[in-house]
Amino acid sequence: MNNYCFYCDKTTDHKIKFEPEIFNVLNKAKIEVVSIISICKICNNQNSNPVLDNENLLKAFRKYEEKYGRMPKHNELFKSK
Ligand SMILES: [Zn+2]
Predict the structure, then answer these.
(1) pLDDT, averaged in runs of 10, over the chain (81 residues)
(2) Could you list the residue range(s) of the whole structural domain that residue 63 is in?
(3) What is the pTM of this model?
(4) Residue 29 needs a FRET pair 20 to 30 A away by CA distance; which of 36, 64, 66, 79 works?
């Protein structure tokens, strides 16, 4: 998969990796999802990818809905740093 690598400063071939990621909901509830991340095959660094990032966020939204019976508002869900 091609993705822009900020470390190589060019578009490179990336591999897909699955990694647990925590999202905070208004700093109270924690939602853990297995996120898809993009790793540069040249330098092995992780790079963000808008499509995957959006997909991961959607996963967190769905998991929140399963747990609390409603979708969180967009300003309620934060990626844990
Ligand atoms: Zn790279």
Answers:
(1) 96 96 80 95 96 91 88 74 60
(2) 2-79
(3) 0.78
(4) 36
Closest CA to 56 of 38, 73, 39, 33: 33
How many A from CA of 10 to the centre of ligand 1?
Answer: 8
E strands in 1-81: 2-5, 10-25, 29-40, 46-47, 77-79
Dist. CA 25 → ligand 1 center (Å): 32
Spacing, Cα 43 to ligand 1 middle (Å): 4
Q: Residue 80 C-alpha to ligand 1 middle, in angstroms?
A: 24
Q: Report whether 38 contacts 52 (CB < 8 A).
A: yes
Dist. CA 36–CA 58, nearest whole Å: 12
**Distance of CA 40 from the midpoint of ligand 1 (Å):** 5
Tell me the C-alpha to C-alpha distance, in Å, between residue 76 and each of 29, 57, 59: 10, 12, 15
